[in-house]
């Protein structure tokens, strides 16, 4: 282990929100490290390789979904730091199929948050699909741990980016991250503003609040997609007419495969995409977790394990 990001999904391990909370699990799934040893039958990876591991710990390659190439939905795959020990540790294990090659030019602390948070927004933007031509309007809801990266990725992918937030006074930050438009959803109807701008081809919803996503849906352009990545305890409400007319859709996006994670890191390396990090020593892991949970982190917390 060299570095591990602290992600909101660590709550599943720390608070025991999982199938068998009686068995403790080491949290952490934004892992940047170096291969210390390989098991029998591993040919493509060697001691000393710089590797990452994200939320998925390696697909099985044998289930029906894997055989159809749908590795994210493999039904025989551990979730790092949730069903399998993760990266708040000196040493961790992963299936070879879950490993991600790290670009030499980037250091472990910069890479770690991109392995889950970065991949999550990158994967969501891939879901925007063929309709999202260069210059298409893409809205990012929230300027937090996920959203601030979402703005950077969307801008670097060539989209016209609208940042939507309720927290106010973040216009300067949104512009600095690459947003073309800033919408304060406390003082303006975000859907109306998006329609004035031509309608959003995609909205990446990163808030942990379903009710805050509902009013965004009418801001979609025809064939537009609202792509949900923020896990919220409450539902999203959608007016049926808003999705029938214009054939709009609301979809989820779940991280990405290990090879998509390599594409993600290549993009970040080539375009200088970095999260804004608060770096803490490994010995401060409990405080790092508390800082992330407080919602006060600016914007990702990373444990420097090295
Ligand atoms: Zn995560
Ligand atoms: Zn599988």
Topology of this protein?
Blueprint: E1 3-6, H1 11-14, E2 30-34, E3 50-53, H2 64-67, E4 100-101, H3 108-111, H4 117-127, E5 137-141, H5 147-156, E6 160-165, H6 171-177, E7 181-184, H7 190-196, E8 200-205, H8 210-213, E9 220-228, H9 240-244, E10 249-252, H10 258-271, E11 277-281, H11 285-293, E12 300-304
Parallel strand pairs: 5-6, 5-8, 6-7, 8-9, 9-10, 11-12
Antiparallel strand pairs: 1-2, 1-12, 2-3, 3-4
The chain binds zinc ion (ZN) (2 copies).
Q: Would you mind describing this structure in some detail?
A:
The chain has 306 residues and is of the alpha/beta class. The protein folds into 2 domains: 3-116 and 274-304, Quinone Oxidoreductase, Chain A, domain 1 (Alpha-Beta Complex); 119-252, NAD(P)-binding Rossmann-like Domain (Rossmann fold). Helices cover 26% and strands 19% of the residues. The chain is built from 11 helices and 12 strands. The strands form 2 sheets. It has a 6-stranded mixed sheet with strand order 4-3-2-1-12-11. Strands 7-6-5-8-9-10 form a 6-stranded parallel sheet, sandwiched between helices. Helix 6 links the parallel strand 6 (160-165) and strand 7. Helix 4 (117-127) packs across helix 5 and helix 4 (117-127) packs across helix 10 (258-271). The protein binds zinc ion (2 copies).
């Amino acid at each position: 282990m060299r570095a591990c990001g602290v992600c909101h999904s660590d709550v599943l391990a720390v608070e025991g929100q999982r199938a068998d909370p009686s068995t403790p699990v080491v949290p952490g799934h934004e892992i940047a490290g170096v291969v210390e040893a390989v098991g029998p039958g591993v040919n493509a990876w060697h001691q000393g390789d710089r590797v990452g591991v994200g939320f998925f710990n390696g697909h099985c390659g044998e289930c029906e979904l894997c055989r159809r190439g749908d590795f994210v939905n493999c039904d025989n795959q551990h979730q790092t730091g949730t069903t399998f020990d993760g990266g708040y540790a000196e040493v961790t294990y992963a299936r070879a199929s879950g490993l991600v090659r790290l670009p030499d030019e980037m250091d472990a602390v910069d890479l770690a948050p991109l392995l889950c948070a970065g991949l999550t927004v990158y994967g969501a933007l891939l879901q925007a699909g063929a309709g999202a031509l260069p210059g298409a309007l893409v809205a990012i809801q929230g300027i937090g741990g996920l959203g601030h990266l979402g703005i950077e990725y969307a801008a670097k992918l060539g989209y016209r980016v609208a940042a939507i937030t309720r927290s106010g006074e973040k216009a300067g930050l949104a512009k600095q991250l690459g947003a073309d438009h800033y919408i304060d959803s406390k003082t303006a109807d975000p859907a109306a503003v998006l329609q004035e701008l031509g309608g959003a081809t995609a909205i990446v919803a990163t808030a942990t609040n379903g009710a805050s996503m509902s009013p965004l849906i009418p801001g979609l352009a025809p064939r537009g997609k609202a792509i949900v990545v923020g896990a919220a305890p409450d539902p999203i409400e959608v007016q049926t007419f808003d999705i029938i007319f214009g054939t709009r859709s609301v979809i989820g996006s779940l991280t990405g495969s290990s090879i998509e994670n390599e594409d993600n890191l290549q993009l970040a390396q080539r375009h200088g995409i970095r999260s804004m990090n608060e770096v803490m020593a490994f010995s401060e892991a409990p405080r790092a977790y508390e800082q992330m949970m407080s919602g006060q982190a600016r914007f990702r917390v990373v444990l420097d394990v090295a």
